[in-house]
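Annotated sample (chain length 272).
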Amino acid sequence: MPHSPRRVLPSHWWREVLIIAVFYGLYTLVRDLRGDKPVSVDQAFTNAKRIIHLERWVGLFHEQDLQHALLSQRWLIRICDDYYGTAHFVITIGVLVLLFFRFPYQYRFWRNVLALMTGLALLGFYFFPLMPPRLLPAGYGFVDTLKVIGGLWNFTSGPVNDVSNQYAAMPSLHTAWATWCSFALASVIRPLWARVLIFLYPVFTIFAIVVTANHFFADAAAGLALLGLSLAVVHPVTAALDRQAWRRAVRHEHAGLATRGTPLAGRSNPAP
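Output written by the structure step:
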């Protein structure tokens, strides 16, 4: 995103924290609505079979092959289990904080993309509950690595079990958020090598969510498509809102200068 004098700064940090906390609270509430209903189990299993059929049709159903090829590397699987449960939130929050304090003009745009992307994902979670590979019947050959190999957390513990909807898998927000982080950082990082390197994050994320049997490849593809849609929508909307805010700031400043009798000639654009 190129710098524009019409772009406005974000609000105070505590307002941003409050907005994000309220949004995430609503997101968590809506995300978990279908997870507690018994009908979701049958529907999630049916949808999983649909995804498998689709992936087989396009030649993409290789999740089981990838997992079984690496199950003997327990240290790697353990890293992926821990990574799956922590990086998703920690890195995304870190990027938001970095943008807010170091690149405030870029922050609003990327925050809006993240918010829209996360909100749209709720539609998938609600209308298309999906059983992840690790929860499929044993005949499908997937291993629940978190249960068999372990990690820093697990879905059966009280707090995690209470707040998680294990059928909220389509689209993969792990993929969408990780790719969002890479694009957001690439927009403010200068060295080309660093921009390229930073996209290893979503690549490893897709690897981790598949090898731990938490997602299908189709979930990751849907997450990437969700990010693309959000970028296409937010860019013109945020630009239009910024132009309106900048015009209001100009009018207010000019009105204030006129009231104080200060000449307007030679005045530059007010800082947003």
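Annotation: Residues 62-253 form one domain.
Annotation: The chain has one domain: 62-253.
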